[in-house]
Protein 1
Amino acid sequence: MSSPSAHTAQHAPHGFIRKYIFSLDHKVIGLQYYFLGLFSVFLGMSLSLLMRYHMVNPNVAVSWFGKLWPTAAAGGVMTPELYLSLMTMHGTIMVFFVLTTVPQSGFGNYFLPIQIGAEDMAFPVLNMMSFWTTFLALIVMVAAFFVQGGAPLSGWTAYPPLSGAGRITGPGEGMGQNLWLVSIAIFCGASLMGAINFIATTVDLRCQGMRLMRMPLTCWTWLVTAILGLLGFAVLLAAGVLLLLDRVAGTSFFLPAGLMINDQILVSHKGGSPLLWQHLFWFFGHPEVYIAILPGMGITSQLLATFSRKPIFGYKAMVYAILSIGFLGFLVWGHHMFMSGMNPYSAMAFSVLTMAIGVPSAIKTFNWIGTLWGGKIHFDTAMLFALGFVSLFVTGGVSGIFLGQPALDLYFHDTYFVVGHFHMIMGVAAIFGMFAATFYWFPKMFGRMMNETLGKIHFYLTFIGVYAIFTPMHYLGIAGNPRRYSAFTDVEYLGKLIPVHQFMSWAAYVTATAQIIFLVNLFWSMRKGKPAPINPWHATSLEWTVPSPPPHDNFAGVHPVVHHGPYEYSVPGAVADFIMQTDPASVRSEG
Amino acid sequence: MLLAPVVWVLTVVIVYFFAAKTWWFPPPISQHGLAYDAQFMRTLIVVGIIFFLAQFALGYVIVRFRNDGRRAEYSHGNNRLETLWTSATALLFIGLVIMGTKIWAAVHFDEAPPDAIPIEVMAKQFAWSFRYPGPDGKFGRADLHLVNDSAGNPMGLDDKDPASADDIVSASLKVPVGKPINLIMHSRDVIHNFFVPELRMKQDIVPGMEIPLHFQADKIGIYEVPCSELCGLGHFQMRTTMQVMSAADFEQWKRQQAQK
């Protein structure tokens, strides 16, 4: 632990550009990430609405589709290739620019330094660079829509040869796929810079008394997420560059000999392995799931303790669970590949390890219920989203017990069962974590409170809405509905499932519309919300000891000293029902 | 507070549709399919109980421990409980995997029986071809350069090779009932996936690899085969059928095809 003054960012910069654009302040950078994610989530959601519309109305002409995509939706009817490119971009934008970006780079950037008592991140310039690199990656990604052939259609997993052989495998597989790969590579660079910064900050910049085991669980999840990012994105970066080389430089990392695509024999490739890509991709891709969900787990833990006025149940067990999820997360990638043609014996190993990773996840759920047990629960909107997270995490988690068994995956692989599973847990549960974090930290970030009435209406509509959208997917999977189909018109047995798809589409339109309530609440509260006190939730961690919003160097030159653990609520004998981490040691606590 | 009944109602609705089997598997047509369904039901019951109890407990604590003026309990946890539920989940999860092992092993560790009928499968964007050896029982020579879809030679059979000349190529899969079948699968362009819901079986077909899959269908009928790995814009249309026929019908079909 070094002294916080070892690194100086004391004087607030002047001028709009230094303050808000090329800012070195972790709080501004955190907000930049947040708004980048907010833009991306609405873009990604709009794409999903178009998909849901097309799936149930594959032949209906909509005039503005035709205006938006004169070739891919000529006459207003979306082509299957347009559907697939919307699907690819939906997945990519959501996974990379929302789920990876907001919980970690957004909230983590803003609150990690404050929660551990630091003035800023360890490397402020690197921090600024990682945001602007992410921004560049987003521009390049969105540009893929506007090039000839449009965005790629190979899905966010980009399996070669579909993604590797160029134009001939389909429209969008020309420049669109190249831009996709370039964007992903840039994004990996940005994430690596961010990960190094998070790790260095947590290791080096904790204030006096902030032992590792006194860190709020949010900090633990950000730290482990950063380690996952460092190891995972490095591999994806390499894989992405190799695939790009296959496409533009005639190499054959992933393309085997003897390919005949669209009646053309590809003589230039030989010796590559399509499975190699899958191994590299999922070596990143599975930890990525935890990159998306771990910070949400941290935020949920933080909120459950705060709003039930109880210490977290089993802090140490929670830390060990986070660490073991992080470790095991790197040993289970093969469960995405049970049907891939890889050695079937390895499936057994991957499946046992996959079930093993369910154990720490279950521990977390038990501990959350244990935290609530005997508590005094306040139902502010932030807490509702945290409770919603627990419910969704359970629902999304238990379906994994089916998919983690190679025997059962023999049927469920690439059906809607999988789509329902990962949307529940990696999609909506993680997004509920973000909503919870938004409502919880908004007062600190903007100095005002969000509107609780709007918040609750939005919560209930969204909570019921996401269940209505994603639960039926499990039934569809059981009925054998394959995923990534642009229409259900050509396989007979899918015809009778179309009403379920119609229900899901309507649920999606309504739930998406409900998100306007959130936007209104967010922007209205920024300007007109009730002014927030320093510590509106009577929480204990360091960000609640500083003004809202915090000054440029967070602690106004004072170096905080920590005497207590982060979850000292309802301590017997204490005056208030919470003890701040910085309260004098003489205040009784067991932390 | 309102959240508790909402969680309970959602839980009951979700469980209801699983119990009512409103949208469900098609009936299985093989021994493997029966074993599969048994393993699925075992897992469903275990998972159903976990799911129901967890959601119910969540709703319960929301009601029971709402803010009613009490002071919250001060407790940092309970190591015995922690150990108990950790080992209980571990046993349960690993137990389920082990129970399913036999099913996986029968499909993937066991070789096809020696009397299995070999059928070559060739997948391409966005069609299937199935090739049967002719009366000589041999697959003859094939060459990518001879592939000509419009001339009816999607697998590039070399007519000059007598072993090839009598091979049968079909756009849909025909198999005799109650006989072991061994598919030898190839793709010539991108990754596809062979899936027959009634068989409870699917397998990726990867270009550059030869991937076997063996099974035995015990019920006569026509079953759909939808491609189940994203293969391009026509993925949703890449469908064929598997017809399970009596042995006599199968032999007759082969004879008819051979004459063409």
Protein 2
Amino acid sequence: MTLTQNRITDLFAQKSERLLNVYFTAGFPHLDDTLTILRGLQAAGVDLVEIGMPYSDPVADGETIQKSNGKALDNGMSLKTLFVQLADCREEISVPILLMGYINPVLQFGVENFCKKCQEVGVDGVILPDLPLDLFLDEYAETFREYGILNVHLITPQTSESRIRLIDDESDGFIYMVSSASITGSTKGISESMQTYFERIQAMNLQNPRLIGFGINDHETFDTASQYANGAIVGSAFIRHLDENGTSPESIHEFVQTIRA
Amino acid sequence: MQTTLEPQTSFEVTDKGFYGHFGGAFIPEMLYPNVEELRQNYLKIIADPAFQAEFWQLLEDYVGRPTPLFLAKRLSEKIGATVYLKREDLCHTGAHKVNNTIGQILVAQRLGKKRIVAETGAGQHGVATATVCALMGLECIVYMGSIDMERQKPNVDRMRMLGATVVPATSGSQTLKDATNEAMRHWINNPVDTHYIIGSVVGPHPYPDMVARFQSVISQETRKQLFAKVGRENPDYVVACVGGGSNAAGMFYHYLNEPSVRLVAAEAAGQGVTSGYSAATTALGKPGVLHGSRTILMQTEDGQVTEPYSISAGLDYPGIGPLHAHLFESGRGDFYAITDDEALQAGFQLSKLEGIIPALESAHALAALEKMNLKPSDIVVVCLSGRGDKDLNTYSKHL
């Protein structure tokens, strides 16, 4: 696939180690927290931000993110509201932004309309776990490319080598390495078998950078993941932090420091 | 008895799992290897003569097939047409669900799986799954919404007695939709040694096709039985209730390409289609993606899945199988919305006229008869998908 140049590709061109991508759910803990959290994360020096589009049935997510999705929906969050909140964010936010969520709300919004809005407000990429690669390529890849929106694909320990090669060929931006056979929010740490998988992928010399996510929740797991990839993604741990400590810049800074140490 | 179990030409699922606009496999990458393994192997496994022999032997000796096709004379008189009942209520475990779980457990064994996970709403599919797991000695984990566990305690006890672990789904609305989410999460967490037995013609391809094939025995037998009784294989109408739609898929399967046979689906209107308490998916839903397939589902304007309601737990699902979405969109099927009250009345009527207490799900199909403008010359087959013992509590409140 032709590499579309945007903030994500620019970032990886400049920096290739220990990148930190932090996920939060739009509309959690409060409906209007989106910009506050974005500012806090940028000030704390994270490299990428993943904003969750809440969904009623998030099958790939564990309890923490499920609950934040439910709370966000109760608070009234929707894609329409999120795009309104993000309308002027690029006046102050320069960190690359990805939207993460499930395909059904995007389908109801309209895929083309969604890509157009992403471009307008300055979203750089999306992660849609239940939109599989072949369906994306058949039906939506052209629209995404037209609006310069990257679609980040996942690989897991069970993904075959040939499929990883295919995903690598069809990816731009980065590849999202799911750390283990699990949903989000695992707190089991990084096992030896996970490290064997990380080494196996590292040895494949893929064209795309890789970020490791799922189960990255502290300095130790971030550090280990960063040894095998270009960085890592933290989600549930940050949601728990927001829930317990609020959204102040100091609190967010402290969380990011703990991960990076 | 040998089977055709062959796909029907014009309503055949495509290689990518589509029926018209509906179907496909909208699954996260974590599930791709499992679903792909199944997709690549299910047709080969089903076609294998050893599989066929074991499947049919179990349907005959364990499930009790063929189930009778019964001429309901007093009901026919009341309705004003000739009404036959396909007696799936006489299957072991009390409903058609076991046709599918027998088929899938044999597939799981041939894929080398050691553990079975399933979702259940009212508990019928959970019981049918726990039953075949006991029969084959496989570990069985059933997810059930915690609200449903309270509502359907006898089925929880049956599953436990059969050796299954019943896990309450405490997320979301704590009903069937959430039990399905939890079962999928369990499968994500245990990708190698576990097979997920989906209970209806829903889920990612190849599930809708696989489940429809296993349930197709319903219409396969009906054709033969009807021919023996009236000298023709094709009735004028076949009628079945649709939640996800597995008994309807089985009842319709061998009639899909027989245009002279109208396919009639009864959906649950709950307290009324516009009451806000309904599960009439085709009346209230829009195209979208749910549990791995593109189908018609009840959802908000923003694409959040809404919570359905029906007096019948087996029809309390916000989507329908992609085959049914295609039958609806193409006009091949007639869809009726049946309220709780209409279903209850149809249940009481069948009990008094024929001495058969139907499941509340099946009572929706019976209630559709009243709305179909039938002629005296019409021959109708209703799929009596399950027996009503499990619903006595509900019936008794309206006696």
